[in-house]
Amino acid sequence: MARRTISRSLMRAVALPTIAALLLLASIVGAVLHFSTSRSDQLALARQENLIKLAVGEAQTTIARDQEASTYWDDAVLRTRQRPLDLQWIDNNLGIWFYTYYKHDEAYLLDPGDRPVYAMQNGVRTQPTSFSRIAPQALRLSAALRRQLLAGYIAPDGSPGKTVGVSSITSIGGRPAIISIKPIVSETGNIAQTPGTEYLHISVRYLDRSFLAELSRRYGIERARFSQSSTADGSIALLSGRGRTLGYIEWDPFEPGEQVEDRMTPILFLALLVVGLLIGGLLSRIWRSRTELEASRAQAQHLAFHDNLTGLPNRALFEDRLDHALTRRDADIAVMLLDLDRFKNVNDTLGHQAGDALIRDFGLRLSALTRSGDTIARLGGDEFAIIIESAKRADLERLARRIIEDIRRPFEIVGTHAYVGVSVGIALAPTKSVERLELVRRADIALYGAKEGGRDTFRLFSMDMDASVKLRSAVEDELRDALATGTGLIVHYQPQVGHNGTIIGLEALVRWQHPTRGLVSPEQFVPVAEDTGLIVPLGEWVLRQACLAAKRWPHLFIAVNLSPVQFRDSRFFDTLMHLTRTTGAKPQSLQLEVTERVLVDDDDKVKQMLSRLRAAGFTIVLDDFGTGYSSLSYLRKFEVDKLKIDRSFVQHLGEASDSAAIVNAVLALGRAMGLQVAAEGVETAEQQRFLTGAGCREMQGFLFSEALPEDELALLLEAPAKPAAAA
Question: What's the pTM?
Answer without folding.
Answer: 0.46
